[in-house]
Amino acid sequence: MKLACTAVLLLSVLGMNTWAHPADAAPVVTVAQAAKGDKNAKADKKPAGKAKAKADDEEEKERNVQKAAREKRKELRDAGVKNIRVKSPDSWPKKVPVPENTELAEIPHKEGDKEYTYESNNYVFHSSVPISPESRKTIGRLFECAFAANKAIAKVLPVERAKQDRSQKKYKVTLCRTRREYLSKGGSQGSDGMFILQAPAGGGMVPGNIPGIVPGGIPGVPATPGADDSGNKVIQVPADMDPEEYLKKIGVTKDENGNPVIRIPADKVPDFLKPDKPAPQPAPQPAPQTQQSPYIPMARAGSDTTADPEPLDERQIYDDYVLVPFDALGMDENGKIVKSDINTHTLVHELTHQNFALNRLHTWASEGWAEYVGYVPYVGEDLDFDRCFAVILREAQKYSEDGQLRFSFTLEQFLRMPQQEMYDCMGRGQNSYLLATMLVTFFVHQDGNRGVEAMRAYMQALRDGKPKDDAVDTLIAPYKSAENLQKAFLKAWSQRKITGLSLREPTKKKGKKK
Length: 514
Fold this sequence. Notes:
Layout: E1 29-30, H1 31-34, H2 36-39, H3 50-78, E2 95-97, E3 105-106, E4 116-119, E5 123-127, H4 133-154, E6 171-176, H5 179-184, E7 194-198, E8 206-207, E9 213-217, E10 225-227, E11 233-238, H6 243-249, E12 252-254, E13 260-263, E14 295-297, E15 321-325, E16 341-342, H7 345-355, H8 363-374, E17 378-379, E18 382-384, H9 385-401, H10 411-415, H11 419-427, H12 432-446, H13 448-463, H14 468-476, H15 482-494
Parallel strand pairs: 5-6, 6-15, 9-11
Antiparallel strand pairs: 1-16, 2-18, 3-4, 4-5, 7-8, 7-15, 10-11, 12-13, 13-14, 17-18
Helix pairs in contact: 4-7, 7-8, 8-12, 9-12, 12-13, 13-14
């Protein structure tokens, strides 16, 4: 489905979950700024007074930090982001120091090695060509800032993967020299980064939130139904095509329960979909179906319709990684920085999916958190979570004015909405991604301790393996009813003058007759 940091940490798992952000949708990250702290550091001096030289260096560094902070604040103002503060719960992070010593260290390259390897504190990077020193500074700072933001959240909410530094099990990143290489390895057309959850037996890659869809096929070869080692049905999507568009092209639809299905003529059902042994008694036919065209449900492991998800642990997803094309980082094909202004929202979005991979969240929460972290701005030497609210408020104002925040469903329906349905909303002019972001923002910024505790209880319920519907009930419980939660959510944003936000009125339940 639908992949920073001196400016805004702006992240997607593309294909179906990557939605392009307009150039003016959020402040642009300046790569040159991202490395400014390192770039402006003076070369070692050798004056008679070493103490004085050190003091001078510290003073210059502080001046550079203050200058960068002023430039960042001006950039936010120019983008229409006002200096609005919000009284967030005491437990929620406000300002998080940017990590130090983030430059990538090169692992000695041996003759015959096909890849160059680099490491930062929490990531290991693989590239087919060497990366320039300036690029190493920029990349390291960008990725480590994203991890620092997620780690700050993990101090409040159960985000298991980000609770501790990953020095023992570093996240894997594959840097792709060209877009062609990016697509051939599973990247999605038009995206700037992609989180790959796990490699199934037999090759191929499963995007973090496209269960059962395997991109990375051979260009020009039709999709090939198959099954992975868990028995999930998969379709091999040509590497040069968008998975969502391709599935529509080959006729994938949904059944009455919202499960993806593919219609196959009865006389052409492949053997692997037929029972291995004939049933001793005539089995009831799966519904819906016709005599000529049975519906074959596609696997949706871990999707929103899963009744009782099994908790994941690190061993099950240790082989996950993020794909990033060079140009998304402002680099040319030789690994050198050639572009100073890039929008890294998609990439930070994807890195956040990587940190939340154990949580088995509903789609709205998964995408909402990825978007939220993508909007956390870097001002001076801090990741400013309070100012993140102002950035998201500006987005809400913009899309409210454009009429894209008028939704045809209730908030409770959104909380339980299947994955594909949420993505379909984007195509109908309903910005479900921003709604998810605003909902996450409501819980952690606008509803005091009640909101944070509700989000924590919901996420913990999923970590404990509770059924997804039960987890939603846990989220709603502090508000007594889904209707009350919807009213509180709309009121909070109305008080911020987001007048174009609307949800369908919940159907009032009839009371029992006396």
